[in-house]
Amino acid sequence: MTAPARPFEHDGIAFGCDYNPEQWTTDVWDEDIRLMGEAGVDLVAVNIFGWSHIEPREGEYDFRALDDIIGRLHAAGIRVNLGTGTASPPAWLARRHPEILPMAEDGTRRFPGGRQAWCPSSPVFRAAALRLVEAVAGRYGDHPAVALWHVSNELGCHNALCHCDESAAAFRRWLEARYVTLDALNAAWGTAFWSQTYGEWDEILPPRATISTRNPGQMLDFHRFSSDELLAYYRAEADAIRPLSTVPITTNFMVTAHIENLDYWSWAGDMDIVANDHYLDHRLADPNAELAFAADLSRGLGGGAPWILMEHSTGAVNWQPLNKPKTPGEIIRNSLTHVARGADGVCFFQWRASVQGSEKFHSAMLPHAGTDSAVWREVVELGGIIGRIGELAGSRVEAQVALVFSWESWWATQTESRPSQSLGYLDQVHAAYGALHALGLTVDVVAPGADLSVYSLVVVPGLHLIRQSEATVLTDWIAAGGSAVVTFYSGIVDQDDRVWTGGYTGPLRDALGVRVEEFAPVAAGETLRLSDGATSTLWSERSHVTTAVAEASFVDGPSAGSPAITRNAWGRGTAWYVATLLEADALRALLGRVAAEAGVRPPAAVRGGDGALEIVRRRGADASYLFVVNHGDAAAVAEASGFELITGMPVAGDVDVPGGAVRIIREEAAA
After folding, report:
1. SS3 of 458, please?
2. Helices marked H in 311-350 — which ranges?
């Protein structure tokens, strides 16, 4: 981190929203602030897209409206999450300096008129943005209403990969700092292939569109560069704020499905508190499991410390092919699932539903239908619950299981040339996490090479790119007595996207006790049968065991007779390998077996609920809190004793959890 972290301090669990007062007249502001009080809102983000309002012309600042709304919020006892206003440049900047506009890989510029129409490497954009940041921070740096600084907004959501000449020059500087010599770069990229060897730094370009497939090492480094370039931009804004304010600084991550361009493991140390935006993705088979995964990953980025859910929705979004509203009670269940998994703040996009613009059909806390609506009533109910559970703020989630997740593996897997275009990194991640989630096991999501000493079980899905040092951490942990499950397409390449030779799984090969000779993927929709009666899809491998025992083999398909599931004793521990994408029930059964053998159990026993429960424990200095979230219609009973915070009732031995309900029990004794 560029400076010591500043703690975000709040009384209890923050409950808030994005607010865009510039879309409304001041008489609406008064009504909004009154209704915020009714809902229990105590943290409001403003000035997220405020640039054109506070600097309508270059160098001419007008803070009157922003002064007014911050003052009104402060008078109402509402704290401010103050945006720097730089997320999207004003029209005058793009007109005067069209060179700031980002360039796609085909060499075409993207026009203004949307958002984030700027190149992360543009010195012109950065200079203009930092002038604005200094003006905003200078004016509000010591304002008593400001509780948090919100740098830009969803950095890299649309403009992470820019291919313009300015980006090309910055990419070359990044490469020269990384490799020092062209010989080292040529070796890392394998440029002996296809006569790609570089003799001068100026010969190197971003991976723009070509007439054939592109160099995967170059594309991997361009992802790394682009993530670092936006991180450098974040740091520049944060550095501009720090001399002018003692308030903590963050930005909103996008830890969610399909957002892959930023390696947040490298970003997290620069945040005073990790904040994340998350929206249910109904394109996925199990949106609730992905929500839990995103929350666990957000917590992992903060090293287990509490984090803030900066944005989520009360209902439908506006950017999926089919935008579904939430079912009754789902706003509460979604929000409290994030709290269960470590969030000390729950905020929505946005407060009042817009009536114009691209997001006018995006849900809000105060919908178009107004206060006489089911959404509003549930928002008020949620605000009341948040107010009653403030005592658990600062507590931490307990987990015995770790899942290793890597943005670099995501990038390296999704190349233009791979064994199967149907193969996706998130397929394996979501499958493995979904099985653990269905088993009721709490998971910490960790980076490759992270300390594993506190875990009993580690799951490694599709870790395609792995460094020797990262492999050593895992294999040494297994040898010391750990239980690990590794899935296919792991251990294939090193940090330079160079294949580990001698048999796939590379530096994990000995610990797994399996030698994979050849990939044999199968067509989408084709089902493979295994000798234990399970079925699988997508992938198979031609391999043989060395020291492992085959627990199941392929009965048919291109790898018939080869092991599909293996188990190997490695030191005092056990290493499992899964060479195919098991269907959900089979994967859940396998991970359940391994977890039981490792002594891993759900936080509490439950009866009923039709398998639709989430159970998570947070532990503080003085108490532990058991969350039971029932996503189904059937009632359930959880074993617990203490005091239930939502209903305000004591619990002795069992707590009833009706269908669609949430229960949070302050446990009476250490569990």
Report:
1. strand
2. 330-340
**pTM, 2 dp:** 0.97
- Alpha-carbon distance of 531 to 555, in angstroms, equals 6
- Positions of the chain with pLDDT lower than 50, given as ranges: 670-671
Residue ranges and CATH numbers for the domains of the chain are: 14-397 (3.20.20.80), 401-597 (3.40.50.880), 606-667 (2.60.40.1180)
Neighbour tally for 146: CB within 10 Å: 18
- Residue 108 makes CB contacts below 8 A (sequence gap 6+) with none
Paired strand residues for 14 = 345
The pLDDT of residue 2 is 57
What is the C-alpha separation between 578 and 364, in angstroms, rounded?
Answer: 43
**Paired residues of 567 in beta bridges:** 549, 576
The residues carrying an active-site annotation are: 154, 311
* Residue showing tokens 């010599």: 181
Alpha carbons 597 and 445: distance in angstroms, whole number: 21
What's the pLDDT tens digit per position in 398-413?
Answer: 999 999 999 999 999 9
d(CA 466, CA 491): 6
SS3 of 360, please?
coil
Q: What is the pLDDT of residues 601-654, one digit of tens each?
A: 999 999 999 889 999 999 999 999 999 999 999 999 999 999 999 999 999 999
Helices 425-438 and 287-301, axial angle in degrees (round to 10): 100
Terminal-to-terminal C-alpha distance of the chain: 36
Number of C-beta neighbours around residue 349 at 10 A: 24
CB 431 within 8 A of CB 470: no
- Distance in angstroms (rounded) separating the CA atoms of residues 208 and 664: 52
Would you put residue 503 in left (φ > 0), alpha (ψ -120 to 50) or beta? left
* All residues at 6 or more sequence positions from 400 whose CB lies less than 8 Å from its CB, including other chains: 441, 442, 455, 456, 457, 598, 599, 600
- H-helix segments, 302-443: 330-340, 374-388, 407-413, 425-438
Q: CA-to-CA distance for 631 and 609, rounded, in angstroms? A: 8
> Are 369 and 297 a contacting pair, CB within 8 Å?
no
Q: Which residue has the tokens 């190197």?
A: 204
